[in-house]
Amino acid sequence: MNGSAFALLITPTLVASTLVGCTLVAQPPRVPLPVGARVRVAAAPRSDWVVGRLSHADSVRIVLRAAPGAIPDTFPLTAIQALEVSRGRPRALRVGIGMVVGGVAVGTAAGLIAKVLVRGEPDGELVVGAAVVAGVAGGVIAGGAVGGLTAPERWRRVPVP
User: Fold this and answer.
1) CA-to-CA distance for 44 and 67, rounded, in angstroms?
2) What is the reported pTM?
3) Per-residue pLDDT reduced to its tens digit, 69-90
C-alpha cells in the first residue's frame, strides 16, 4: 500500500473522530442522576426541600414529580442551592429495635395488669403467663410495624453542575 492510499483510508477516520470528540467536549455537564431517582431539591425562592422523582434532567434544568400524575416542578440549575438523592431507609435495624422494645414493654405491662386482676384466683399464675405471652406477641408485631414506618430517610448530596 502506498502513502496516498493509506492517507485516503486514514483521513476520513481522523476527521470523524475529531468531530465526535469536539461534540462531546462542547456538551455542557448534566446532572449525574438517573430518571426515576428519588431526590430532594433546595432552590430559591422556596424555603423548604422539594421531594419527588426525577422525571427529566439536562444541562439547564431538572424536573421533579411529587407523585404519579402530579404537576411537575421545574428547577433551573442556576437556582438550585442543594440537590440530594435518597439512599433509602434503614428499616431492618428500626424494625428489630421496635420488635424488642415493643415485646418487652407490652409483655411487661400485660403481665403486671393480669397479676393485679387475678390476685387470689386459683389459676392466676397461668393467666398471668398467658397474658405475658400474648403481650409479647402483640408488642413484637406492633413495635416492628412502628419501627419500620418511622425509619428516617437517608440522603446523599449530589454536585450540581
Assistant:
1) 22
2) 0.59
3) 888 999 998 889 999 999 988 8
Sheet bearing 38-43, strands edge to edge: 73-76, 61-65, 50-57, 38-43, 80-88, 154-157
Alpha-helical segments (H) within 1-123:
3-26, 91-117
Which 3 state secondary structure label does DSSP give 53? strand
Between CA 52 and CA 67 the distance in angstroms is 7
Architecture of domain 3-88: Roll (2.30)
Task: Give the tens place of pLDDT for each residue, 16-66.
Answer: 565 555 544 545 556 678 888 999 999 888 888 999 999 988 888 899 998
Closest to 60 in 3D by CA, of 45, 79, 36, 34: 79
Residues 6+ apart with CB under 8 A from 54: 31, 33, 34, 35, 36, 37, 38, 39, 62, 63, 64
Angle formed by the axes of helices 124-149 and 91-117, nearest 10°: 150
Task: Give the DSSP per-residue string, 75-90.
Answer: EEGGGEEEEEEEEE--
Q: Where are the domains of the chain?
A: 3-88, 91-152
d(CA 72, CA 64): 5
